[in-house]
Structures are given as C-alpha cells and as structure tokens.
Amino acid sequence: MRAAGIGTRRGPFWPCAAILFFGVFLYGQTAMVSGTITRRNGEAAVNITVTIGGRHRLTDVRGRYRLPDVPYGRQTLEISEGKRILFRTSIEVKGPSVVHNEKLP
C-alpha cells in the first residue's frame, strides 16, 4: 500500500524542481566578452578600462579587451579613463562568447 501523495500523482514538486534546476543552471552561466575600443578618429583606445558585470580590464595597444566570467543577462558596459567615465551602455550577454566593439564619442 502506498502512502497518500507519494508516487500516486504528480504534485507541485515536479514543476517546482524543474524551475529550480533550470534557474540554477541559467544563473551559473558565464561568458567571455571581448572587443575593440577605438577613438573617434579610428585610433585604438590604449589603456582604457572596460567594466562589464563587475569585471574590469585595460585595453591593450590595439584597443582590444577580454573579460572572462561575465554573467548572462543584461549587463552595463562602462568605458573609463582614470576616474572619468567616457561611455556607458547596456549589452545583452546571451552566449558563451560575445564580441562588442565600441567607438568612443
């Protein structure tokens, strides 16, 4: 004899378990965001700080940056030089590798 509610029908447990599993799976995903930052005249923006999702890196001599482990979802991209913010926008991180190039105003 089975106890009432155990194995006899699907209660709210399965939908809740599925939502929890997929929510944790999506929450834990991160991406590599990379790209190139250039100045208005087309020259590489060297030693500029690029910040996305709490991670930050300096651009190299070609204006390139690579930020690992950026969480999926809408993130704020901020480009700064010293303490001066040069540019801020929102990007959507939704794949394992995202390329985002930006030309400074």
Describe the structure.
- The chain has one helix and eight strands.
- It has 105 residues and is mostly beta strands.
- The chain has a single domain, classed as Immunoglobulins (Immunoglobulin-like), CATH 2.60.40.
- The strands form two sheets. Strands 1, 4, 7 and 8 form a four-stranded mixed beta sheet that branches. A four-stranded antiparallel beta sheet has the order 3-2-5-6, with no helix packed on it.
- A hairpin with a 2-residue loop joins strand 2 (49-52) and strand 3 (55-58).
- The longest helix has 15 residues, at 13-27.
- The mean pLDDT is 85.
Helix content, binned percent:
10-25%
Total strand segments: 8
- Oligomerization category of the chains in this entry: single chain
Report the biggest beta sheet as strand number plus sense, adding barrel if it closes: 4 strands, mixed
Instruction: Characterize the overall form.
Output: elongated
CATH-defined architecture: Sandwich
Parts with pLDDT < 50 across at least 5 consecutive residues: none
Cα radius of gyration in angstroms: 21 Å
Helices and strands in order:
Layout: H1 13-27, E1 30-38, E2 49-52, E3 55-58, E4 64-71, E5 73-81, E6 84-93, E7 97-99, E8 102-103
Parallel strand pairs: 1-7, 1-8
Antiparallel strand pairs: 1-4, 2-3, 2-5, 5-6
Please tag this protein with its features.
elongated; mainly beta; 47% strand; Immunoglobulin-like; 4-stranded antiparallel sheet; 4-stranded mixed sheet
Short précis:
This protein is mainly β and 105 residues long. The chain is 14% helix and 47% strand.
